[in-house]
Amino acid sequence: MALIVQKYGGSSVADADGIKRVAKRIVDARRAGNDVVVAVSAMGDTTDELLDLAAEVAPIPAPRELDMLLSSGERISMALVAMAIHSMGFEARSFTGSQAGMITDAHHGAARIVDVTPIRLREALDEGAIVIVAGFQGFNRDTRDITTLGRGGSDTTAVALAAALDADVCEIYSDVDGIYTADPRVIPKAHKLDVISSEEMLELAANGAKVLYIRAVEYARRHGVIIHARSTFSSAEGTLVIDEKARRALSDLFPQLQGEHMEEPVVAGVATDHSQAKITVIGVPDVTGKAAEIFKIVARSGANVDMIVQNISAAATGRTDISFTLPKEEASLALRALAAEQADVGFENLIHDDQIGKLSVVGAGMRTNSGVSATLFEALSVAGVNIEMISTSEIRISVVLRGDDLDEAARAVHTAFGLDGEIDAAVYAGTGR
Amino acid sequence: MALIVQKYGGSSVADADGIKRVAKRIVDARRAGNDVVVAVSAMGDTTDELLDLAAEVAPIPAPRELDMLLSSGERISMALVAMAIHSMGFEARSFTGSQAGMITDAHHGAARIVDVTPIRLREALDEGAIVIVAGFQGFNRDTRDITTLGRGGSDTTAVALAAALDADVCEIYSDVDGIYTADPRVIPKAHKLDVISSEEMLELAANGAKVLYIRAVEYARRHGVIIHARSTFSSAEGTLVIDEKARRALSDLFPQLQGEHMEEPVVAGVATDHSQAKITVIGVPDVTGKAAEIFKIVARSGANVDMIVQNISAAATGRTDISFTLPKEEASLALRALAAEQADVGFENLIHDDQIGKLSVVGAGMRTNSGVSATLFEALSVAGVNIEMISTSEIRISVVLRGDDLDEAARAVHTAFGLDGEIDAAVYAGTGR
């Protein structure tokens, strides 16, 4: 008998039919002989509706009260799921974050999990019950207050429960049936991966892939939790996210796992990202400490800088240009902050460009395979796409391009790395609700 | 500095405007120098909407899960009220039933309060905060599960908090501005009472008056809590509900409290009730134990019998008729149960009558004043209304009439006991939302 943790998102439990469908899936897992623990999100748009209500009564809602408010969303969905299971003749019990022992720090709205003490869940499992837990919420021991985990909170709840209960697998259900080599809405020939390493998944998620939240993948990697990303609307296997060592061992044992697509799985996937803007600081005095000065100002504005490129200094002027990328919605604050200190820093001008796109290729195989960047640049060159910035990690190469070129560039690169599947992955985009 | 407990019902917090209006009232009480603890119901129709959702996913929802579901309603309203107060510059903290120390038995859906340990509320008050508590919900220590208190639960929460915190008064806000001598929709000349004894209030509530729940009044009476029933939509004083001794002392000290209406306050009010049906069991063998047999059957069907009348036995047949009243919606189950045992009991026939009405006059003064029943019967006789059944308690006389006669009879009786006010109480029915 395995212990399975499942997580269902808001779109999976958006209405009574969705809840009954989810309940049936849970019961099926139980019928197959497994212990089942389930983390659920709030129904559909509940969280947004509650946020709207809060905005109507208070311009800046008190964070403690906002968490109290939002945590009611998962209470509703979890109780309904438990009832639906009950009415199918199975014992089910729902637990709030605090009842489930999800202990967090006191940072309302973005609390970090500091401990998981699932004593009541173990008792319920021992008594043969299916356990339903409110995702997204926790409890601070010092203040004894309800907290919420912030974006991607329910995924994190599921992974944290899987870790604390030493579950065999953490199944994360959504309206997408797994992790693809690229976004199939952009690249119809993208194919679903059977397995991906958590390191690769982290890089893909950090660079535009949307199926799993970075935070949950990170937690899973640190605690050795195996994630299975799959669809609520299909019984097909999804994608296993496991650590790199386990992935390599699996590949050695079951070469067929990679399918014919992946005889040389140097690159696991291609991620595209339209969400960034580029700021170029022109004519920065080429003096030690100037870059630090600039990025201190940007950091104080609250912006999260991604890529940075500094031009080679022009000897004649003693000045250089520094470009960096950041999320589009953070650009105006950063620009304002820099402009306010132009005299102190001594730069000449600021250029803002929100028509860029970022393309990343990710693959653990890069560690041991040279030539990845050559293949990437060659493919882009053949496609006639100009590269504006480059950054690399151990298992990723990212380039900034014109936004208009991004989709075409991604298709060319996907083909160049041998990732194209045999059939179009049209199903990917079509299953959303 | 007084400690005031306030309770706001669902219609008072039905939307953002309502929540802001309630928040302002609470802040006003705080500004006036009081410590304030507030119990709130779920917003508007939230509870009904949650019940509908439950019915969609499970024909008979598991009681534990239903309580988990329903308890989310008050979390939403209390967090919003706390936020709204916060944004007016006052410190407010919301607490769930379990955080507030509302300990109940484990009877899901209709839990009884067994203890109130408001430790966190005292701490918050000591720190200068306004305290907002979820009405209607509690927590069972043994199962560690969330419970709900059932009908009138939020009123009971407020009164129980007032008792545990030794509050000076428990203000129960609704869309009605106090307790009237009768339902002003039926009797426009009904007038608002400044004070009523809890014993009288209990009899009125048990016999059709709707402003306060019996259970909350009973709890208040047992624990010496003073209730002040008043309107969310007006700053006028409402009606104080206090125990009879206190009421008598008050009347002696402040005769003007009773106003000119009540120089002889024998009768406090007239209650009307259209919600009952009458069942008559015809031809019951006049043998010891037959009545017991019949009412055992009725009780097993789940019906709550109110009035009982047994005819004088006809010597010729050795048989008698027994009539009783019960809530209309319980009549069919009771009839079915009786019919099933007709042979055993040996009665001849069953008659069901759902066109009856019940009129009650209530007044603590009855204890020391004779002639109340004479005045009542005389008034009904002058009005040409036939009496079908009579029952009495120490401070109440109830009669069953034709339902069609009830309103006219109530007006006649209200006048006969000198209860008519000088102006129509039209405001009573007009303020609902």
UniProtKB/TrEMBL annotation, chains A, B:
Catalyzes the phosphorylation of the beta-carboxyl group of aspartic acid with ATP to yield 4-phospho-L-aspartate, which is involved in the branched biosynthetic pathway leading to the biosynthesis of amino acids lysine, threonine, isoleucine and methionine. PROSITE patterns: ACT, ASPARTOKINASE. SUPFAM superfamilies: ACT-like (SSF55021), Carbamate kinase-like (SSF53633). Its EC number is 2.7.2.4. It is an enzyme of class 2 (transferase). It comes from Microbacterium kribbense. It comes from the Bacteria. One of its GO terms (molecular function) is kinase activity. NCBIfam families: asp_kinases, PRK06635.1-1, PRK06635.1-2, PRK06635.1-4. The keyword Kinase applies. This is Aspartokinase. Residues 279-364 form the ACT domain. Keywords: Amino-acid biosynthesis, ATP-binding, Diaminopimelate biosynthesis, Kinase, Lysine biosynthesis, Nucleotide-binding, Transferase. Pathway: Amino-acid biosynthesis; L-threonine biosynthesis; L-threonine from L-aspartate: step 1/5; Amino-acid biosynthesis; L-lysine biosynthesis via DAP pathway; (S)-tetrahydrodipicolinate from L-aspartate: step 1/4; Amino-acid biosynthesis; L-methionine biosynthesis via de novo pathway; L-homoserine from L-aspartate: step 1/3. The keyword Amino-acid biosynthesis applies.
